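Appendix B. One record, verbatim.
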Amino acid sequence: SCRSLEDKKPEWPTDRPVLFRERNGWCPYSERVWLALEVFNVAYDTVLIDNMGEGRPAYFSGSTPKMRWPDGRTQGESMDLVKAVDKAYNTEGVELYPEGVDVDGLVSEFSRCFPSRT
């Protein structure tokens, strides 16, 4: 489910994570966490945060994305969140964050496709 911007701090569920993401869909860091949750069909709530302007709720500090886990912990940094979602909800064997020589080679090859000064 998705909540709108409010100043009053909502009651958080204790049975599922809550993703705090920017409200316009412009943030690639929020997007990667959102997609990780969707890949594993995780039941979660979303709180949309206005990162610019006057719309930021008083109860929220810091930057997005952030996750409030069911145990009450709060965590930030998108790649750390992707890894945590992968660890907690990956029952399919899908690799969201593959590591190793093959991946390093592909990243290096991809980098060479672009001009060096862009």
